[in-house]
Amino acid sequence: MTSLDRTGVADTLRGGQRRRRARQPFKGVPLPLLLPALLGLAFLILPLVALLVRAPWSTLPQQLTSAEVWQALRLSLVCATAATALSLLIGVPLAWLLARTEFPGRGLVRALVTLPLVLPPVVGGVALLMALGRNGIVGRWLDSWFGVTLPFTTAGVIVAETFVAMPFLVISVEGTLRAADPRYEEAATTLGASRFTAFRRVTLPLIAPGIAAGAVLAWARALGEFGATITFAGNFPGRTQTMPLAVYLALQSDPAAAIALSLVLLAVSIAVLAGLRDRWMTTS
Length: 284
What we know:
This protein has 14 helices and no strands. Helix 4 (about 65-100) runs parallel beside helix 8. The chain is mainly α. It starts with a helix and ends with a helix. It has helices spanning about 5-25, 30-55, 60-65, 65-100, 105-120, 120-130, 140-145, 155-180, 185-190, 195-225, 225-230, 245-255, 255-275, 275-280. Helix content is about 80%, strand content about 0%.
């Protein structure tokens, strides 16, 4: 048998195996595992399907073109983008510090950085009030020295969203930095480049995909933030009322409008998952 014939036989066998696997997708899965798995899948998908089924499709254009919706959407986009930019400005250096330097208490610092991921958002809002409120430990000096008041302002929305979103960026960038070979930076420094120049010209291009993924996650998290925002910035239309807050308010008086706004946020979430598919959702 020639090598070409052997190759053809091997391809035929592999094709038959793939067809058998396609005909028996759950072969070998124990029933006590399959049933809870399907139940979990239904539990996660059913609310989203219900949202689509109950959506007021006939009046959706009117719902989404109202002045209140566009006002909340515009504020959400501006604040989420500003929070992401602020997270990039201070989060990328923080991730580099955690990944590339050794200092006492680094594990504790890393735990504190990731704490907003598990902290209830309302608690985060209360903590921001205690720190940056008009009577806060830092906010009182901002108010008396510079006349800066953050709570219940658009700037307060950006601060609250940055607080809850920046850990996503830091974790993503730190993981990318740990995976990148530090010898490239060392080679740049041995050739006369400063540490900052090596970071700017060598490290940043290497970790650009991780920064992009972290920025997208931070932006999506900031866009969907509710608890810290309403606690620290309030719910004032045109000033602090973002899309999640508008959904909450509309649900009490106009459920159809709440569903329409929820569809917008759902579409944004799907777009984020689609954008990160090649990075985190590939299958072997």
